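User: What would this chain look like folded?
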Amino acid sequence: MAENLGKSKRDLKESVWRSFNHVLLLDKGNALREVDLGLVHSSSTAGGPIENIINRLTVDGDFDKGISVRLLLKNWSSAFTEWPTKSVRDAMYASPHFPRIIRGTAAVQDTIAKGVSDGEIAYVSKTTDGKYSPFIYAEGILRDDVEISDDVFLIRKETAEAYKASQAAPTPVTPTTGSATQPASDSTTPALSPTPSIPATVPERAPTLTQPVLFSHIEWSGEVPAQKWMNFYTKVVSKFAAGKGVRLKVTFEAMPEGGVSQQKLEETRAAIRELGLDGEVNV
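Assistant: Here's the prediction, encoded as structure tokens.
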């Protein structure tokens, strides 16, 4: 009885595996393509049937662990000069021109970080006056610092270079208009004295001055999700960062499920010291 039960389990398992032998997917021509996996059995991979399908599509080039910066630039959306990072991610998921990404958002962040560090694209956010802040271009940026949002954009190298040059260019000085030189009068022609015109006197209304309301102090406290740290700096802190009298108090607390290792604790302490910040990292 036990032997027959074991054989039945093995036969059922192989039947399930053999049923996952065809895949339909959207190809680069925006048409459905069928992939025949052939004879499939449980020894094909250590994982399940889904992992076997992913492995096969990865070998065929339909799946990949990431997207190259060159492929991103080749398929840059013509609708955007400033491409929101959220739209970039959505395009990578939806467009058949990109391979399916196994690692999801992390792969998108890797591509953006590499492109920014190599000077192929710039990572920016816009302020109310139309300028970019932050403007990160041709400098190192970590994957975890890349925010996927509608308020953060990618711009191409040409746009970044033009913006950088415009910010470095000196402000043009408007020349002062001098008095016009009157042409010399002909000595044979008698000079005519112009009849002076008396301008009409129009009473001027004194402008009404509105005194702006100024507050000596504003303050906010609350919890900012990790996905909105960059947005918080761009939309709130950056508006006051150029002036004086701004203080930012930070409480950092990490409670991962598996705990914090001694190595991560020492790395955190070293990073705090490198930033020149006071205070001890407590456990």
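The mean pLDDT is 80. If you want, I can go into more detail on any region.
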